[in-house]
Amino acid sequence: MSLPNRIRLxxxxxxxxxxxxxxxxxxxxxPPPEPLSTEDDHAWMMRQLGIESLRRGADGNPxxxxxxxxxxxKANARMATLPDPLVFDxxxxxxxxxxxxxxxxxxxxxxxxxxxYGRVPELPTVQWQVTDKTIETIGGVETETRTLVGRVSNPxxxxxxxxxxxxxxxxxxxxxxxxxxxxxxxxxxxxxRLRERFTEEQLAAFRGDGPPWNEQVLARGWxxxxxxxxxxxxxxxxxxxxxxxxxxxxGGSRAPEDWGALRxxxxxxxxxxxxxxTAEGFDAARVAVEGHSRYGKAMLVAMAFEPRLAAAFISSxxxxxxxxxxxxxxxxVGNIASSSLYHWMAGNFLKYAGPLDVDDLPVDQHMLIALxxxxxxxISSGTDGDQWTDPKGMFLATAxxxxxxxxxxxxxxxxxxxxxxxxxxxxxxxxxxxxxxGHTPAPNWPYFLDFVERHFDKDEQTP
Length: 463
Ligand code: GCU
What we know:
Blueprint: H1 3-20, H2 38-49, H3 97-117, E1 127-138, E2 141-153, E3 161-171, E4 178-185, H4 188-197, H5 200-207, H6 213-219, E5 223-228, H7 243-249, H8 261-278, E6 282-292, H9 294-305, E7 311-315, H10 333-337, H11 365-370, E8 377-381, H12 391-407, E9 430-434, H13 445-461
Parallel strand pairs: 4-5, 4-6, 6-7, 7-8, 8-9
Antiparallel strand pairs: 1-2, 2-3, 3-5
Helix pairs in contact: 1-2, 8-9
Alpha-D-glucopyranuronic acid binds next to loops.
């Protein structure tokens, strides 16, 4: 175990005695790593930060006294404090693209790392292996599907291993290196639970009328990939002691600036690009990512921090994704800082639901979108049943990211006016469309694929 981890564990043992009511051991030798439960890990992070209590989030139940706000008239009081992406922390203005690339972009990225999503530690390399290859017909297209495992072996105790799961399908008739559209998706167990929980009718509503997304991708002659998020990092606080985050901490607890699950899932997308750079038949310079809801948040983080990703489709990402923290509408900072979701974030983020508030954040989410500039990003939302994600807030964040795109010679949204449902703003490098279904990406898939195809064609024509 590395020295910082030993120190952390010794401190943890001492504090936990008090937190959990167990006998405190004044041990000269640090105890073996003892992973905490979600609640205890959350409490331990609060202790590390000296936070006694957190503000509660909004309640999805409309009859609750803490019900989420859905009134536009009450949503914007704090939007006045939205930081300007083109003004340095010291108050001076970004004058040109060089200012952006050399100083302002790194300044913004550092804030997101330290306060919101956390830093990526040194990690062992990932060894990709193709474990299976099948030829199948998907939506009428003969396709070769590879099953891959990205093995991460941890040389340190405890000997956790991470096997990243990826499937990669490519039309057998395709020639040359094809673009890849990659979804951050669910594991088989979760999908089985969904099938048990929802009726076929509800699932059909989620899928929409069109063919599944992978069929739409393959029909264009492109490759479709699915990366299983939870094979990289479990989706709960107790899981932080394992998975790729556990490998980074040597099985100990996180320090406040260490990464959370969103950044870890995003890291997984980068490792897939590493693989595609070495594999034949795929164009690693034309990889687009898609994610919905929590996975939409993660793929926006991926797009912001991984310059090799060419485009992104960010669906219903809401709080922690494309929605400004400063919008008082739908989900709030207290929800994400709670013990059920805090593991998505760096520990430091908890401060903003405790002693600090959203106006104290040095950045807001329009600046995460701005970190993607000038690459094409499509921000998507639903309507009824998707208000928790704050569609208008996500539109506003996209609009407020536009000046950075324009500074870099790309096209932003071109308007601050919130368009009608179904009226897409799709001609620029930043795109927005709100479909008329609920919490699902399905109706926007064809619009995204047309959008990204235009960009990929343009790239091919640029010498
Ligand atoms: C919860 C959470 C959201 C998240 C969503 C999901 O509703 O509050 O932030 O996007 O789960 O991922 O399905």
